[in-house]
Amino acid sequence: MEEILKYFPALDEGRRDRFAALDALYADWNSKINVISRKDMESFYTHHVLHSLAIATTMDNVLGIGGQRILDLGTGGGFPGIPLAIYYPQNRFVLCDSIGKKIKVAGAVAEELKLDNVQCVNARVETLEGGFDWVVSRAVAPLDKILGWVRGKWTKGVICLKGGDVESEIELCIRKRLLDPKKVMVSDISIFFKEDWFEGKKVVTVS
């Protein structure tokens, strides 16, 4: 929890309490349904919660506007959707995953935290109806595949947490999807979060 307060010291009590409760909730669920590796649980707040909130550091000027509907594609156990829903209680989040046991965990965590702005859906994203302002995702698939899956479902942008050879992935996506390169923005997470683990990790936004 210290990792969160280090970078987000102005959190109100309600959000602090919810973030503080995440560790025990996920540790309990992870003992029943393995959604996070044991190694990652040792660095839970850095590798999962803080990583999810990297989206807030780069996109707060637009995500901070209330009344928006945000789709978390391939949420797994609830990342980045659950941390973002805690951070942005003024927006509504639909967490989608095709694997039932993973979305079960996300739904149980959201219910335990009384996150009324979260809806969890066990489905393939292609079957969802549109009407989202933003799509967010974390380590789900190459960018061009993600854009294909959510085509026509968003109006403002797609935000992806990425690592590895991001430049090649973006170049391929631009060619395949005929994107205007000016519509793609890349932010280095290590500019905001100084832990070594964030070296090479990016937030990629397609608008």
What does this molecule look like?
- This protein has a seven-stranded mixed beta sheet with strand order 3-2-1-4-5-7-6, with helices on both faces.
- The chain is an alpha/beta fold and 207 residues long.
- It has one domain: Rossmann fold, CATH 3.40.50.150.
- The protein has eight helices and seven strands, in the order ααααβαβαββαβαββ.
- Helix 4 packs across helix 5 and helix 7 packs across helix 8.
- The longest helix has 20 residues.
- The model has no long low-confidence stretch (mean pLDDT 94).
- The protein is globular, with a radius of gyration of 16 Å.
How many domains in all? 1
Q: Report the sheet with the most strands, covering strand number, pairing sense and barrel closure.
A: 7 strands, mixed
Task: List the total number of helices.
Answer: 8
Which architecture would the CATH scheme give at its second level? 3-Layer(aba) Sandwich
Mean pLDDT: 94
Gyration radius from CA atoms, angstroms: 16 Å
* Strand-residue proportion: 15-25%
Termini separation (Å)? 32 Å
Q: What is the general shape?
A: globular
- What string, H for helix and E for strand, traces the elements in order? HHHHEHEHEEHEHEE
- Spans of at least 5 consecutive residues whose pLDDT stays below 50 are none
Strand arrangement, largest sheet? 3-2-1-4-5-7-6
CATH superfamily: Vaccinia Virus protein VP39
The helix content, as a percent range, equals: 40-55%
The secondary-structure class comes to: alpha/beta
Per the CATH scheme, the topology name is Rossmann fold
